[in-house]
Amino acid sequence: MLKLVVLISGAGSNLRALLDASADAEFPARVVAIGADRDADGLALGEEYGVPTFSVPFTAYPDRDSWGDALIDEVRRWEPDVVVLSGLMRLVPPAVVDAFSPNLINTHPAYLPEFPGAHGVRDAIAAGVTQTGASLIVVDNSVDGGPIIAQERIPVLPGDTESSLHDRIKPVERRLLIQAVLDIANSHLDLKELARS
Ligand code: GAR
């Protein structure tokens, strides 16, 4: 059984999809803990699904590196096979990458390397493109520039707002994430090999 720690900053709708998938006895992965960098709404999913939660508030630390060190300690307690950044709206410092990558993966609401960063959906709308996408990557020390695990194109429709477009991207992110978790658990996807190539 693949053990996942999922880190969030927001509502955790993609996390909910993983928790729902894990509720199936046949699914080969379990979310063993949910962590956040703030008082994220999605932490409430821990109680709903009976999964432990923890918070390492970014603002409680003097700098990114000391926050990262505290995050590493919390995450390691759960001995995860894979750490999923599922809407963690924070760049993780190099020590976090060293501690967990390539078993550190991130969903992103754009077709990377297009529109990296915190506003992938907003930036795609502002650029006036007719298609964007969803990506799942291995986290490295770049900003959303790590090896691509999976990605899919999604059209930008006339009249789309940031929120209407994001609402169509998220289900694709969920599908890519759940498929990748399945593939890792079934040894059809080797993150080490992907990160080497
Ligand atoms: C997701 O679209 C995720 O890809 C994005 O935040 C959203 C979280 O939604 N992450 C980033 O933009 C990271 N750069 P959720 O909290 O409802 O799952």
From TrEMBL:
<feature type="binding site">
    <location>
        <position position="64"/>
    </location>
    <ligand>
        <name>(6R)-10-formyltetrahydrofolate</name>
    </ligand>
</feature>
<feature type="binding site">
    <location>
        <begin position="89"/>
        <end position="92"/>
    </location>
    <ligand>
        <name>(6R)-10-formyltetrahydrofolate</name>
    </ligand>
</feature>
<dbReference type="InterPro" id="IPR036477">
    <property type="entry name" value="Formyl_transf_N_sf"/>
</dbReference>
<feature type="domain" description="Formyl transferase N-terminal">
    <location>
        <begin position="3"/>
        <end position="181"/>
    </location>
</feature>
<keyword id="KW-0808">Transferase</keyword>
<comment type="similarity">
    <text>Belongs to the GART family.</text>
</comment>
<feature type="binding site">
    <location>
        <begin position="12"/>
        <end position="14"/>
    </location>
    <ligand>
        <name>N(1)-(5-phospho-beta-D-ribosyl)glycinamide</name>
    </ligand>
</feature>
<protein>
    <recommendedName>
        <fullName>Phosphoribosylglycinamide formyltransferase</fullName>
        <ecNumber>2.1.2.2</ecNumber>
    </recommendedName>
</protein>
<comment type="pathway">
    <text>Purine metabolism; IMP biosynthesis via de novo pathway; N(2)-formyl-N(1)-(5-phospho-D-ribosyl)glycinamide from N(1)-(5-phospho-D-ribosyl)glycinamide (10-formyl THF route): step 1/1.</text>
</comment>
<feature type="binding site">
    <location>
        <position position="106"/>
    </location>
    <ligand>
        <name>(6R)-10-formyltetrahydrofolate</name>
    </ligand>
</feature>
<dbReference type="InterPro" id="IPR002376">
    <property type="entry name" value="Formyl_transf_N"/>
</dbReference>
<feature type="site" description="Raises pKa of active site His">
    <location>
        <position position="144"/>
    </location>
</feature>
<dbReference type="Pfam" id="PF00551">
    <property type="entry name" value="Formyl_trans_N"/>
</dbReference>
<dbReference type="GO" id="GO:0004644">
    <property type="term" value="F:phosphoribosylglycinamide formyltransferase activity"/>
</dbReference>
<keyword id="KW-0658">Purine biosynthesis</keyword>
<feature type="active site" description="Proton donor">
    <location>
        <position position="108"/>
    </location>
</feature>
<comment type="function">
    <text>Catalyzes the transfer of a formyl group from 10-formyltetrahydrofolate to 5-phospho-ribosyl-glycinamide (GAR), producing 5-phospho-ribosyl-N-formylglycinamide (FGAR) and tetrahydrofolate.</text>
</comment>
<dbReference type="InterPro" id="IPR004607">
    <property type="entry name" value="GART"/>
</dbReference>
<dbReference type="GO" id="GO:0005829">
    <property type="term" value="C:cytosol"/>
</dbReference>
<dbReference type="GO" id="GO:0006189">
    <property type="term" value="P:'de novo' IMP biosynthetic process"/>
</dbReference>
